[in-house]
Amino acid sequence: MPQIVDGQDAARPLFSRALHNxxxxxxxxxxxxxxxxxxxxxSPLSETITGLQQLGYRAPREGNLRWLRWAREELAxxxxxxxxxxPLLVNNRASWPQFLLPAPSGPRTTIxxxxxxMQQTTARQVRASLHxxxxxxxxxxxxxxxxxxxxxxxxIAAELRQAHDRLIAPHWPRIRAVLEADIAYRSTRxxxxxxEHLFADLHPDLRWHHGRLSLDHDHRNRRIKxxxxxxxxxxxxxxxxxxxIKGATSTQTTLRYPARGTGTLWTAGTRPVPGSxxxxxxxxxAQLLEALRSPATTxxxxxxxxxxxxxxxxxxxxxRESGLVAGERxxxxxxxxxxxxxxxxxxxxxxxxLRSTPGTCPAxxxxxx
Length: 369
Prior knowledge:
It is a single chain. By secondary structure, the chain is of the alpha/beta class. The chain folds into two domains: 243 residues, no CATH class; 80 residues, Arc Repressor Mutant, subunit A (Orthogonal Bundle). It has 14 helices and ten strands. The strands form three sheets. It has a four-stranded mixed sheet with strand order 3-4-1-5. Strands 2-6-8-7 form a four-stranded mixed sheet.
């Protein structure tokens, strides 16, 4: 493990998932106004913090291993010193100071926006949060922050910005695409069936019943008092497999959950395409199909495959007409993703026999040149 804290080896005792030995529910009561104000958001700062914590876990999330290998190689070549931030995020406590991750003010808050909001945390809020996490006997970094909150927050903001630029920014287009695609899917469910439909498959530990959202297996046996302005739902790519709800807060309450599609986030486009698929579609379209195991925009695909956006658009149009890819619009962007039918072509040994409807036949597929 690389040395990422000033003079500290990151293999020392770190934040332990074992401390989250949940067995009782945590309850959130949401009235009509709370539901009306509930929204989705994406946070680069959230990915930065969870990425650092994944680097500290002794048993990190399996889906993040490819990113973790890259990050450790990057840090081994050029260490990242986080003397103020690392002890607050990665330790043997059951939690960490929640003011480090304020609720995003908008759907696509930048890292700069979040760090500026974090620095607006009052001295009273900083000290109260530190005592909730560490008790009365504060360790070095926490004690320094307790003594000088404003100056300490400026230092922490600079460290988190450096961590983001080194570890998250190089992969942000790919991460953002997965998060945007997740939000598009969840928004469709919310529109189709309301809160009950939304929370039904947000996470196995979440239950929605008559205006009450409960989180099973949480170590806090109490109700959470929502912050002002409803609930902010944050999909997370680099985080753990469980749900994280921000408790005591002066900003909106956040619920962070594992985003859909993270299983292929770091492997999409890296596997060899089966020869039969290349012969059927042509190499360029076959490569697009493989790359779209994880959602991406036309611009992202063009940059990744080093071809023009117009060429990507032409190939996507044919793949879409053949039912091999589908797109979802999120704001101004359309995120494309391989369909189940397309995945069958990429995994011919696992594909089920195609079922045809009487009187129909599969649409003809053109071959790229």
